[in-house]
Amino acid sequence: MASHPSVGTRSAVALTIAGAVLYFLSFLNFNLFALTWLCFVPVLLAVRETTVKRTLWLGTLFGAVTNAGGFYWIVHLIEEFGHLPFLVAVAGYLLLCTYQGFLLALALAFVRRAQRSLGLAPVWGLVIALPAVEFAYPLLFPSYIGNSQFRFTWITQVVDITGMTGLTILIALVNGAVYELFEARLQTRRIERLRLIVPAVAFVLCAIYGAMRLPSVDASVRTAARLNVGLVQTNIGAREKASDPDEFIRRHRQMSRELVAAHPEVELVIWPEAAYNRALHRDQKNVANEVTDGIGRPVLFGAVTYRESNESPGYQVFNSLLLASELGEVIGLYDKIELLAFGETLPLSGVFPFLGKMIGNGAWFTRGTSFEHLRLGDTSLLPMICYEDILPGLVRRLWRHDGPADVLVNVTNDSWYGDTHQPMIHLALASFRSIETRRALIRSTNTGISAIVDPAGHITHRTGQWTKETLVVAVPLIKDGSMTLYMRFGNVLAWVCLVLTIVGLYMSRSKVKPAGV
Predict the structure, then answer these.
(1) CATH H-level, domain 225-478: superfamily
(2) Residue 195 pLDDT
(3) What pTM did the predictor assign?
């Protein structure tokens, strides 16, 4: 096959940016989810017949612009809560976008290297590399390209078998098939039918599975036991609660009393992350005076807890979720395990403790070590705090350690994002935990969006964003101990893709180019 000249620099940059815009638009407006199935086509055209080095450069641009469209709220976060100048905030934003975007550069570089050295068509290279880097690349804010499809429920149901990797593979296949149509035309050759047939068959099979699976999931929800929960959303953000902690606690208690008075059927009241806005000693066994008096119901609430320590600075602090009985007795405690880098923990400070003492005087949160569910009577609740709800690996570890839960519960503070698209994106990312586990997700936030997600991944009830309101829902409990294939076997596909990527890189060291596949 004759070689064709690579795309000019200006055209390549334009195509790369166009693909990035398609990518992030599908997250900013989930009704545009179809754009994801095409977003890699322009950048694949941009790197066609070029060097791996140039591919890496264009891939970095692709990833940086993709992240820039989704993480624009970082500037507000750094400036408002980090108290840093605007230019510093912009610099931090650009650095984060470039780092996170480099994930996509690595995937595209592998695609191009495998094509040049092994004759592997982009459709197959992308299917191998994209899931591998999504799985292995360390991100400050993890996400998957398949999260963009959360409204496309016929397709997303496959996640209970494959995890998020299955959606990534399917999206890569379709992008590769569309690219094949363009490349065949540009190279004036016949279309390689296998490059279209495999993606088409995979897409149809996933859609059929979803269409068949949804009715059975809905049927299990209809016959499930229920837990009447009340969510309290005070609409007090991080800045306001810091300036007046007493008002923050008072409003939670007042709104909880009003909620129970209006809905006496409520069995559990849930407050968001750090709703009890004072440090609570871990030895305290009763919080009636601080939390439950006048409410008359069990309360699940976020709090900062502490205990004395022999190490500097003399105490340990935890981001915790506590379950208190209607009498105020603390009957359950969960500490956040996956701490946010630079916000709650300093990377590598566990290996080099002196780092934490040098930076922040050691005033970082301590990582939780318990993988136990919280239990209210005979109901088990799998707990998550803040962005732990976007980490499928953590949820599976909790599940595997303490067995199948009846329902998932997340408490978070999304006020850091301001009035942006990010609270909706966070909720969309979290909704996939319901599909993976086939359990409902209860999600309580301080400024929105609080919500209930059913075991099929549908958002059945939700509050507004930056609104003061309560939400009362009879949440389905799946008590049969059932376990999906994903929860049983984990992310097997991702490991396969990672191994294939490593093997492909090793094989591509030789410059022998076999016949195209």
Answers:
(1) Carbon-nitrogen hydrolase (3.60.110.10)
(2) 97
(3) 0.91
